[in-house]
Design goal:
264 residues; alpha/beta; Spore Coat Polysaccharide Biosynthesis Protein SpsA, Chain A; 12 strands
């Protein structure tokens, strides 16, 4: 089996249907693909997905993004695994273009598409330079990796787990996502670990997905706290205790504003 598509559902039932419809429409050969849905919602999906040929894993609790995808990995049969958020929708030929990336270079281990919003290319980060203590401290001062003039496949530091394709053998070799991340930075961490083993991480700009983004969180303060917690763990794990706490200290005013003071 060539391809496994994995989706983690939480608070996104209606979006999930649209996502599955786009997979069914644009998968080149449904007989040579597998779709796994891991349900992190407390409400069972059950008969809700009867019209789709999916392998359903019911958790009935939110175990986190990475852990849920690791559960899917245990059942994945494809040579390549395409991770999609339920609030994504595939553009025509997106799957074929992503799978074909791996034939261009045997050291490409992970690839991502462009994320498209209603306004065009998404303003939210979905790929970029490697995240370091300096880049997290400097924030927007360091800028983003530019799309200007990019038409061909290009190498990057990381791609978003909201739409990411990875060789299954690499995913297994890395032990899946680090489950200490509940949400955020687990994709950045995965890409960094892959690059340390000599694999390349790339973006295929001709492959596109529509991404609503931010559909799982209704509480922006909770969302920000989760982001900062994951950021702190990422920095400590990969750059050490001192750099982690330097970053925590410098971001403290932003932390209090976004987590405790900012209006919803």
């Amino acid at each position: 089996m060539l391809l496994t598509v994995q989706i983690v559902n939480y608070n996104s039932r209606d979006n999930l249907i649209v996502c599955l419809q786009s997979i069914r429409k644009h998968a080149q050969d449904s007989a040579d693909s597998q779709v796994i849905v891991v349900n992190n919602d407390t409400e069972r999906l059950g008969g809700f997905l009867d019209s789709f040929n999916v392998d359903l894993i019911e958790k009935n609790e939110n175990v986190g993004f990475g852990k849920a995808h690791n559960l899917g990995l245990e059942k994945a049969k494809g040579d390549y695994i395409l991770l999609l958020n339920p609030d994504t929708k595939l553009f025509p030929e997106a799957i074929a273009k992503l799978v074909n990336v791996f034939s261009t270079n045997e050291r490409i281990g992970i690839a991502g598409p462009l994320h498209i919003s209603e306004e065009g290319v998404s303003k939210e980060e979905h790929f970029g330079f490697q995240k370091t203590p300096l880049s997290t401290i400097g924030g927007k001062l360091f800028g983003k990796q530019s799309l200007l003039g990019q038409k061909d496949i290009f190498e990057t530091g990381w791609v978003s787990g909201g739409a990411m394709i990875i060789r299954k053998k690499l995913f297994c070799e890395l032990g899946g996502f680090d489950e200490k991340y509940f949400m955020y930075f687990e994709d950045v961490d995965l890409c960094l670990r892959a690059k340390k083993k000599g694999w390349k991480v790339v973006v295929q700009p001709e492959a596109k997905v529509f991404h609503k983004s931010g559909q799982s969180f209704t509480d922006n303060r909770q969302k920000k706290k989760c982001y900062y917690d994951s950021q702190g763990y990422y920095l400590q794990k990969n750059f050490g205790f001192v750099w982690s706490w330097v970053a925590r200290a410098l971001r403290l005013p932003f932390y209090f504003w976004n987590v405790y003071l900012k209006k919803q």
